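Exam review. A common question shows you a sequence with its structure tokens and asks you to describe the fold in words. Practice with the pair below. Do the first one on your own.
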Amino acid sequence: WVMGAAWLCLHLVEHYNFTCDLEFAKKSYPTIKEACRFLLDFMVEHNGQLVTVPSISPENMYIMPDGRYGMLTYSPAMDTQIAVSLFKGCKKIASDLNINSDFIDEIEKAESKMPPAVKIGSDGRIMEWIEEYGERERGHRHISHLFALYPSDIVGDDETMLAAARKSLETRLSAGGGHTGWSMAWIINMWARLRDGEKLFECIIKLLKNSTLPNLLDNHPPFQIDGNFGAVAGIAEALVQSHNGYIELLPALPSEWKNGHIKGFVARGGFEIEMAWKDSKIIGAKIKSIKDCEIGIKYNGICKTLNLSKDKIFSL
């Protein structure tokens, strides 16, 4: 799959986003740069836009106007979303490393010509393909066009895109989607990003009941670790989110978890968090930063800005 290296390199970007480790950034930047270079070389101009072609929306098929099925396409939503996310990460790391080059200019020039990462169709859903094709399998287990919602931060707090993502997810699930372990794990994270703790909890229960073996490994079948890792990521995402440039505590807390305590959680920007809550409200939190900085925080309906000092613990 032509987007494989780009997606894998996003893990390098995210590791840096969480740790702010410049030595890691120096080591990873050449790999990230080459993945970007591949995309720049692979894309071609079509109707005034830079597009990936040939490509697919992983394992899914569409229905053409004449009734035939198709898979090959150009610039399906997931391609553009991954490319946009990687280019953003590459530029940030280059900036933090004080790298100013023609290559970064080339990325920015390409970005200006690419299709929108999120296109909303006439039915209010995020489009999976470059055109509004019919869907051969409305309940397909992949929900690739919501990469922008999770793990990417493209959707963010945009209410219009959040509504379109929710409708896309609800439509896919109502037709039988999410029936494998890894798919359900991804959906748990999507509900977290949509700040819907009750739906998130329902999916965790479904994952445990329908896709978990007696030894607690994920049953694809026969086995995929994605379901295990993804479910844990989704639980973390329900409790702490930091992809929007601020820290949000308990963004998607299920009512079943109304009392609790966590420690050792991390947030993007180099923060470590410990917190406790009662009756679904934060009753205490400690935040430690690896650097002097200013960061927004949202909890209990409160939004404020914190001024943190390196290695000092700030208590809410």
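Now try the second one, then compare your answer with the model answer below.
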Amino acid sequence: MAQQTTLEERGSGLTKAIVAIVVLAAGGLAFGYFSSAEDPSTTTGAVGTESAASSQAIQAASAVRRSSFEMSAADVPDIIEAPALATDGDRVYLAWASQTSDADYTLLMSRSDDGGRTLSEPRVIHTTGVHHAVSFMGGRRIERQLRVWPHLAAKNGRLYALWLDGGEAPESVALRFCESKDGGESFSEPIRVRHSSEGRPTFTSLTVADDGTVVCSWLDSRNRAQQPFAAVRRPGREVFEEEQLVYSGPNDKGICPCCPTESVVTSSGETLVAFRGSESGYRDMWIGRLAPGATAFAAPVPVVSPTWEFGGCPHDGPVMAEAGQHLHIVWMDGRSGAGRVFYGRSAVDDLQFASRELAAGSAIQGHPAMAAAGQDVHVVWDEMGGGAATTSQPSTSQPSTSQPSAGTAGRAIMYCRSADGGDTFGAPIAIDAKPGVFQTRPRLAILDDGAVCMAWMEVAEAGKEIVLARLDDPASFASGTR
């Protein structure tokens, strides 16, 4: 296991305390609904897939190959920052932000040239300052440390990166973009995506279309409310067009303020931006549309009718993908009193979604990610209250129905697949669950050979890691009937 540069050791007591807090938070209405509570985890070594929590548990017929890198002691308390993952052919890119001093974040990247089986030593892509954002709520002064929010995309032999620059001065905060033509060995000079210097961007996304169109979306505070904005860079252009407001929110008061946005460019050239709304107290998903050649986003459309009424922010946004002439979307919904992952599908041109809960059960789920190609739709999420208790070595045995041990505390990465364009999904499996280990914020990408790679953050008493796992044969998980 490779190890990156870390801050001076601050002791194991902090990590133990954070793990304890996470366990207590799991007893709430829904895990991760408040800005001060989320999830964490760590361990190393090759492992096989595990028995699932809230569904019929099975053991993977193919191996899960795992690699990991240790993160710094200062990274342990951050339970919201996520990894960045991209694939291009047989090449896999993994990036993440690490706090490497009290005043600095470092953006690191590792590359695999063999489909995620092995990873290179991490290299530094960029170093930026730490920005402390100050706001006032109910007469109280609130200070938050701005995150880097790294993103990667790979298309046609090029690698694209997006992140948030920081620094103590408000004017130092900027959304930066660059690209590489040599597999990440070197990058172009970073450029600003967001032209305005008013307010701050956060909760970002990056997508690159097949023709080279680049779209970034984010939440923006320039109008003294968190509102979704997007910027487009056309093929052959060096800079981004002026950013556009996606939706001002009810009475111009913005949307759900702390959930990541998601952007996609459809095969017809339409730009879509998904976000969690705040309509009369309902925290459901909406999609804004920018037609080709249009100069402004049309009024957003709801993914579902008003469903989840909630007075907080879950820090949990939507994920979209176009495949098989459909637009697919997954998100967390708390309508039943606990976070559950929902899946929706629509024709690309009408955005009339049919949706359903993806995996029934009592476990608390969140932070889904998705990748789709043709009729294959792959979904991952993190789940508490039902993860497997034991670790096994990579196995080629027949699927079993072994159950997880009772009383196991932890949060596991769950995976399921549809082979029929989302009509049905196979039973979810826990990819690498371990007692007392908290895995969260997964990312997912498909390789040309049909394998899938996943990345996530993981915290346990030993510290924090970033993990990459390769699932060799996702087709071995048959579709079910849900």
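Model answer, second protein: Helices lie at 13-25. The longest helix spans residues 13-25. Full marks require stating both points clearly.
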